[in-house]
């Protein structure tokens, strides 16, 4: 089973922010698979399942605590334990925002994330490894103008002029992950 986690912050106020691009991609994947998310309180996540092929996980924790929700979801839905860690993580994809990549670009890399990302740090701590697929979605639309700190910038929504670029990368990444 392919496990896909989309990082973001919970709540309506964060729904369309750069930091929640992982949730946006998962919503697109769920739409393409014609499946719906349900709240799974035991895992602090929203979960969508496509028979035995895909498990989609949207943590309902804040970004800095994503690891707790990811570990709980993997343990509950994928019978994840430390003995299976290497095998299980080869099918784990974590979608997240990345300020090291320009808006509209993406990278899918095993064990390689951005320089600083608190959601990933939480996942690394809980899983005790970085050896899973990082789906790095570029959200930096500042064109070199770095007057605002990154931790504030990622909480901003995309500009209307950026939305077509965002829609295109979301579609591309969703289809790529579905194979």
- What is the percentage of strand-forming residues? 15-25%
Which CATH architecture is right? 3-Layer(aba) Sandwich
Please, what is the CATH homologous superfamily? Answer: Peptidyl-tRNA hydrolase
Strands, count = 7
Shape: globular
> Can you count the helices?
6
The main pleated sheet reads as: 7 strands, mixed
Mean residue pLDDT:
90
Low-confidence blocks of residues:
none
Structural class: alpha/beta
CATH class: Alpha Beta
Q: What radius of gyration results from the CA coordinates?
A: 15 Å
Task: Write down the secondary-structure element order.
Answer: EHEEEHHEEHEHH
Spatial arrangement of strands, main beta sheet = 2-3-4-1-5-7-6
Number of domains: 1
Describe what this molecule looks like in 3D.
This protein is of the alpha/beta class. It has a single domain (2-178), classed as Rossmann fold (3-Layer(aba) Sandwich). The chain contains six helices and seven strands. Strands 2-3-4-1-5-7-6 form a seven-stranded mixed beta sheet, sandwiched between helices. Strand 2 and strand 3 form a beta hairpin. The model has no long low-confidence stretch (mean pLDDT 90).
Features:
7-stranded mixed sheet, single chain, 179 residues, 25% strand, 6 helices, globular, Rossmann fold, 7 strands, alpha/beta
């Amino acid at each position: 089973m392919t496990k896909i986690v989309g990082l973001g912050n919970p709540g309506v106020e964060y729904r369309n922010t750069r930091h929640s691009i992982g949730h946006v991609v998962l919503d697109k994947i769920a739409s393409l698979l014609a499946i719906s998310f349900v709240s799974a309180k035991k895992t602090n996540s929203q979960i969508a399942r496509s028979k035995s092929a895909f498990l989609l996980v949207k943590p309902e924790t804040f970004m800095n605590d994503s690891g707790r929700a990811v570990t709980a979801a993997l343990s509950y839905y994928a019978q994840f334990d430390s003995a299976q860690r290497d095998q299980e993580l080869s099918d784990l994809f974590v979608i997240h925002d990345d300020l090291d990549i320009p808006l509209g670009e993406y990278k899918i890399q095993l064990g390689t994330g951005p320089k600083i990302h608190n959601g990933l740090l939480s996942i690394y701590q809980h899983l005790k490894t970085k050896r899973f697929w990082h789906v790095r979605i570029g959200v930096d639309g500042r064109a070199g103008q770095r007057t605002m700190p990154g931790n504030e910038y990622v909480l901003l929504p995309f500009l209307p002029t950026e939305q077509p670029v965002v829609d295109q990368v979301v579609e591309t990444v969703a289809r790529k992950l579905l194979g």
